[in-house]
Specification:
This protein is of the alpha+beta class and 318 residues long. The protein is 45% helix and 23% strand.
């Protein structure tokens, strides 16, 4: 995990910082007051989460970000022009997709405090491919407002979870399986929140490929690589089928999904490690994190459901 702090009242220094860390940008102060901007950025592979506060009205004009850029306004307002000629004003509580990755954008931030979360667009494509009926090819978001208030609330909670439960704890954020799962969860929440190009009907070829041999190849790959950050797309590629065919194979033969099966395998490996560990030199938290379970309470609940006792009981024998 990387953390970055910025605090300046120099408009030229601020413009240079924004150009280096977002997109090439021109800014100016629309008031005669202070030009102070404060930014805290936490980052993991593919995702950055920024908390930003401005003590002035800032006009901006920027080149394309080439990122999925989400904005959640806490205080103040933002006037933004993007999506071709689309203009909108965002206020406290609004969650928006600020601009398409490939388009320039401009606007004015009026003394606001807000969150900017940016993702690599490829994350959306990878996660969408895991859903039955998802279209092939890059995924595009088709609007800047969420499809419903409920979808917006879920996305806000997903961002808060990544920021407060993963990035806020260096020990958690250092676990590759945790960050991989967190980025996929965030990308899935984005797809659920905004209209997009992801979904089409499944093909006859996908149904034909969902046979037992596909399942055996997938299981072998999962068991051999369970301690690595795996995506459904990678498992499908190793099984020589599309993601949809992989999904159908798991549903047809095991009544589960590839990621749910992966979680079961990781839980089993964590169980083996807990059973064989020396209590004086190991903890449940460390072992759970190593296998992608960063929330110890949820790990304990899953473990008890699977093995009938707590992970601590397995580790200590008490």
């Amino acid at each position: 995990m990387d953390t970055l702090h910025f605090d300046s009242s120099d408009i030229e220094v601020t413009e240079d910082f924004l150009s280096r860390n977002y997109a090439r940008m021109r800014i100016d102060n629309g008031t005669a007051d202070t030009s102070r901007m404060r930014i805290r950025r936490d980052a993991m592979p593919g995702v950055t989460v920024d908390e930003i506060a401005l003590d002035f009205d800032m006009r901006y004009s920027a080149t394309p970000l080439w990122k999925i850029c989400l904005c959640l306004v806490h205080e103040g307002t933002i006037d933004n022009r993007a999506f071709g000629d689309a203009e909108d004003t965002f206020g406290p509580g609004d969650m928006v997709h600020l601009t398409p990755p490939e388009l320039p954008y401009e606007g004015r931030v009026r003394g606001a405090r807000y969150n900017i979360t940016m993702l690599d667009p490829e994350l959306l494509t990878q996660v969408a491919a895991a859903a039955p009926g998802a279209a092939r090819g890059p995924v595009r978001l088709l609007g800047h407002r969420p499809v419903s208030a409920a979808a917006a609330r879920h996305l806000k909670r997903a961002i808060a979870h990544v920021r407060d439960e993963v990035l806020a704890d260096p020990a958690v954020a250092a676990q590759p399986l945790v960050t991989s799962t967190a980025t996929q969860y965030l990308a899935a929440s984005v797809l659920a929140a905004f209209p997009n190009t992801a979904f089409t009907r499944p093909t006859a070829t996908d149904r034909h490929d969902s046979h037992s041999a596909t399942l055996r190849r997938a299981i072998a790959h999962i068991e051999a690589h369970a301690q690595e950050p795996l995506t459904v797309a990678e498992i499908a590629a190793a099984s020589h089928v599309t993601v949809r065919a992989l999904q159908y194979a798991f549903r047809r033969h095991l009544d589960t999904t590839p990621l749910a099966y992966l979680r079961q395998v990781r839980l089993a490996y964590a169980h083996d490690e807990l059973r064989d560990a020396i209590p004086a030199t190991a903890t449940v938290t460390e072992i759970a994190g190593r296998w992608g379970f960063h929330h110890v309470g949820r790990f304990a609940a899953l473990y008890r459901e699977a093995y009938g006792r707590s992970p601590l009981h397995t580790l200590t024998g008490a």
